[in-house]
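Note to self: keep these together.
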Amino acid sequence: EAANASETDKLGLARVLVEDGELEAAQMVLEHLVAASPESAEAHGRLGLLLSKKDEFEDATRQLGRAVQLAPEVAEYSLGLAEVLLLWNRSPTALEFLMAVKPRFEKLPEFRYKLALAHFALHRYEQAVEVLEGLAREHPELDLVQFFLGNSYFSMGDLKRAEASYRKAIEMNPRKASYYPPLGQLLRTQGGERTDEAIRYLQTALELDPSDVPSKIQLALCYVEKQRLREGQVLLEDVTRTQ
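Structure:
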């Protein structure tokens, strides 16, 4: 509210509020800044990224789109816009946009990862695998790349490679509960002792995150296959209460 508060001051305030989880207050600051400085790419960009955190994808797309217009050289805004489009289930638009900015950002790992996600969302699994395999070779430390390689191979029906990628992702980041359900599902589809193995993985996932819905569903299906019907029922009833 101070007359001499600069754009830098306001952006700094918004950043601190976001870090503290005060998203509504941060949004108010950034909306005030956008109104006062409509040609500020950073104001539009920060507001768009904040709105994305709140799952307000339409408004986030509008703000990030303006930021990209004002500062097309800033990767954060372009990649943020692509991510919002993917989260908003606008995958064809996301892929079209990513291809348009590819000459500018194609060397960035984050760009290539989002390009792979766009291909995956459009069921272009072979293209997704090609991008992700290249990323995995150049950046073997990225566990999320291995996880989505697993998803891509699983969708293609290549269970052996999918399993290897899932196991590698879990080995790299064993505390990530969301990595376990797809591996559990893959093992369950093969039945027998593999279902027992799936149960162990899914129980580990729920120890890491007791609220993880995909883990509960997959574990319940494993219990059904093993005729542990009461245990499966309890899990599925819990899921229907929360969702």
